[in-house]
Amino acid sequence: MLRYRLMITALAICLSACGGDAAPGAPSGTSPAGGQPQPSKKAENPVAAAKRLRPADPQLAQTYQRTCYNCHATGAVNAPLTGNAEAWAPRLEKGMSTLLKSTTDGFRGMPPKGLCFDCSEAEFRELILFMTNQTGQPDSNNDSQD
Ligand code: HEC
């Protein structure tokens, strides 16, 4: 009988000591590689935007392209870009008559008459209105027609 008990004891010890073959549940870290596209939609290049704009009037568009465009649509000489509200905001605060005077007399990097020597004051006014986006460019216009 003693042997029997010893066997039981031995068995019991073995079961607890060496029989612990419980699988160490290894949770494999499966992280979903969800590549979400960043909503970093870049705004249009301001120069590209300026280059697209033309006065509605074909005659004025031609004058503009021949003169103002070369600086105000290229950004090459740090001229305020056509249609760029941010660039023009501080200048608009001076008022139209000051801007007209800057145009005819020249202003720092801006050459007298914007190199349009045959332009009338009325044309300068139109060109300034156009470049400062005061003439209603189609982009922000709510032109719903019934
Ligand atoms: C040779 C390049 C050049 C041409 C051509 C040019 N501009 Fe400019 N213009 C400039 C620059 C540079 C400035 C910014 C001057 C500064 O503030 O330093 C400027 C500024 C101006 C301003 C703002 C002046 C102010 O008081 O802040 C007006 C208005 C303007 N231009 C109108 C025109 C018009 C209209 C034409 C076309 C008839 C024209 N420009 C052609 C270079 C040019």
CATH homology superfamily of the domain at 46-136:
Cytochrome c-like domain
Our count of helices gives 7
Could you say which small molecules are bound to this protein? heme C
Task: Label the overall shape.
Answer: elongated
Radius of gyration: 38 Å
CATH architecture of the domain at 46-136: Orthogonal Bundle
Rounded to the nearest angstrom, the distance between the terminal CA atoms is 108 Å
Beta-strand segment tally:
0
Class by helix and strand content? mainly alpha
Helix content: 40-55%
Helices and strands, in order, run as HHHHHHH
What would the CATH topology of the domain at 46-136 be? Cytochrome Bc1 Complex, Chain D, domain 2
Average pLDDT: 78
The CATH class name of the domain at 46-136 reads Mainly Alpha
Low-confidence stretches: 28-32, 136-146
How can the largest sheet be summarized?
A: none
**How large a portion of the residues is in β-strands, by DSSP E?**
under 5%
Protein name: Cytochrome c domain-containing protein
Pfam families: Cytochrome_CBB3 (PF13442)
Organism: Biformimicrobium ophioploci
InterPro entries: Cyt_c-like_dom (IPR009056), Cyt_c-like_dom_sf (IPR036909), Cyt_CIE (IPR002323)
Question: Would you kindly provide a written description of the structure presented here, covering whatever features stand out?
Answer:
This protein has a domain at 46-136: Orthogonal Bundle (Cytochrome Bc1 Complex, Chain D, domain 2), CATH 1.10.760.10. Helices cover 45% and strands 0% of the residues. It has seven helices and no strands. The chain has helices at 2-17, 46-52, 58-66, 69-72, 85-92, 96-105, 121-131. The longest helix is centred in the N-terminal third of the chain and has 16 residues, at 2-17. It is elongated, with a radius of gyration of 38 Å. Mean pLDDT is 78; it is low at 28-32 and 136-146. Heme C binds next to helix 4, helix 6 and helix 7.
